[in-house]
Specification:
Number of strands: 38
Distance between the termini: 140 Å
Strand content: 35-45%
Number of helices: 4
Largest sheet: 11 strands, antiparallel
Radius of gyration: 46 Å
Shape: rod-shaped
Length: 535
């Protein structure tokens, strides 16, 4: 009976322990299902903007951040990832890439200056705001490339809950223009470097206060300013090229370059550059005169007017010789039978034709003249070191032109020209690339080598690259003062430049268009002065 009792008692005790264990287990499960209540995790908000979206850096911008941490702030770090704020740059301000606002140490002063809360102003706080509106725009002052600049904020509360947000600031580098100081004044080109252009923007240029023209993107960020050429034909059916007005760059000018938006509005401030001065024409103002010995028809050599200060400075010449001594003279010795020139133009060159039983045409040209055996020989052309392509020849002039009263009676005669026909005075310029001067010989019956740059683009000595021509038709009367004139230059070859050492310039002024054929009006007079290039 005692053993039976013991076994029953053991079973009762075992059941009790199992019951107690179940109760304890249930109680434990109930504790797990109902944890202690935690405070809300920290929040980081950007005032007025979405903190998760990039923010454009501008000169005037607002960057204010609100932090809430109901469980109180225990840790607050800022990690900087910026190509502008490098380790080296930050170290100069006593900062690093990792900023611990709760434990700032020696950084406290600078962090406070920059607008960050630190030390007691961060630790233990539940609600704080800080303003870095002065810091962020400074990035654009030290960095000038399109880029992103990131500030990662991590806030941890006393319950070890951490919230992380990244402030991303985007810098769009300003568009910039730089002139590359490479103007080619013969090719009429120059380049600029334009960086950080907005989509759809273009680079434009103009001679100062002129019309805007588009520059062409050539490579990378390089834009070329270049002339635009119009092709036509002259009266001789030869192809000629003219630079479109306002395009390209020329000597002695100021140019403006700008960036223009797609709608044509200017972006930023235009830049300016000046091109160096162009070429000068020796004795172009006709102020340098001397005398030279030339043979007459039968007698010894005599002194005649020479349109250069000395033979050593020879550039111009004329047909003056011992027979015809006044085909070209300075106005200082003007005859009283013609109108006097007034104003600042004097002295000028006076060209006057004469009746010498044949016509002797008044003339002035770049080159040299010789006379022997009743034959006059003109060598047209002078060596001229071109630096810049001209667009026109400028000068001052006036002329008296009448009907033809002398024609050559035999030998080489001008076809379809007779007495009583209108005569023309003529001024022309030719830019050439010759290996020698071009020679024209005229005597009583023959003319050899006559040429006209308006009718041919080459002679035996080489190419005619460009020309300009003016014919002054009869009747024309002398003005009381010289008039300004520009003779546009047309180009047969828009690429070539006269080779160094070539005979490269011809300027010719003649009272009679057919003077080399002894045909024209014997009373024609022309004054010319102040030769220079227009660019």
């Amino acid at each position: 009976a005692s053993d039976v009792y013991k076994r029953q008692n053991y079973r009762r005790m075992k059941k009790l322990f199992i019951t107690l264990a179940a109760v304890v287990a249930f109680a434990a499960c109930s504790d797990d299902d109902e944890p202690a209540q935690l405070p809300a995790a920290p929040t980081i908000v950007l005032q007025g903007s979405d903190i998760d979206q990039p923010i454009e850096i501008t000169e005037e911008m607002t960057v204010k951040v609100d932090v809430k941490a109901p469980g109180t702030i225990a840790g607050f770090t800022v990690t900087i990832d910026s190509p502008a704020l490098t380790e080296e740059i930050l170290q100069t301000f006593g900062l690093g890439k990792e900023l611990d606002l709760c434990n700032p140490g020696s950084m406290a002063g600078m962090l406070t200056t920059l607008g960050f809360p630190c030390g007691d102003k961060a630790v233990g706080q539940t609600d704080l705001s800080f303003d870095i509106s002065q810091l962020v725009p400074r990035i654009a002052m030290i960095y000038h490339e399109t880029s992103d600049h990131k500030f990662t904020l991590a806030v941890t509360d006393a319950k070890e809950q951490t919230t992380t947000k990244t402030l991303t600031f985007h810098l769009t580098a300003p568009a910039t223009l730089t002139y590359n100081d490479d103007a080619d004044l013969w090719a009429n080109t120059a380049t600029v470097t334009a960086e950080n252009l907005p989509d759809g923007a273009k680079v434009q240029y103009r001679v100062k206060d002129g019309e805007w023209q588009d520059a062409a993107l050539t490579e990378g960020s390089t834009y070329q300013i270049a002339p635009e050429w119009d092709e036509t034909q002259n009266d001789a059916k030869l192809a000629i090229y003219d630079i479109k007005a306002g395009t390209g760059v020329f000597a002695g000018n100021t140019y403006e370059v700008r960036i223009a938006a797609e709608d044509g509005q200017a972006i930023g401030t235009p830049i300016e550059f000046d091109t160096r001065g162009g070429d000068t024409i020796p004795n172009g103002d006709m102020s340098g005169w001397s005398t030279i010995s030339r043979l007459g028809l039968f007698g010894p050599a005599i002194e005649v007017a020479y349109p250069n200060a000395s033979e050593e400075e020879a550039f111009w010449d004329c047909g003056n010789n011992g027979v015809t001594t006044t085909l070209c003279i300075s106005t200082d010795t003007d005859s009283s039978t013609d109108k006097k020139l007034v104003g600042e133009a004097a002295p000028a060159a006076r060209l006057g034709s004469q009746n010498m039983m044949v016509l002797a045409a008044g003339n002035l040209f770049t080159g040299s003249f010789s006379y022997a055996n009743m034959t006059g020989t003109v060598d047209f052309g002078r060596k001229y070191p071109w630096k810049a392509r001209p667009s026109a020849l400028k000068l001052k002039y006036t002329a008296k032109v009448d009907e033809i009263d002398i024609v050559r009676g035999s030998g080489d005669m001008v076809k379809d020209v007779a007495k009583g026909d209108p005569d023309n005075a003529r001024i022309f310029v030719a830019i050439v690339d010759w290996n020698a001067p071009h020679q024209v010989e005229s005597n009583m019956s023959t003319t050899k080598g006559s040429w006209d740059p308006e009718k041919t683009d080459t002679v035996d000595e080489g190419k005619i690259l460009g020309y300009g021509s003016l014919k002054i038709s009869s009747p024309a009367e002398l003005a009381d003062a010289l008039k300004d004139l520009e003779i546009q230059i047309h180009w047969y070859d828009k690429e070539a430049k006269p080779a160094e050492g070539s005979y490269s310039l011809v300027i010719s002024c003649a009272c009679n268009e057919y003077g080399d054929y002894f045909t024209g009006c014997s009373t024609n007079v022309m004054y010319v002065d102040d030769f220079e290039w227009a660019y």
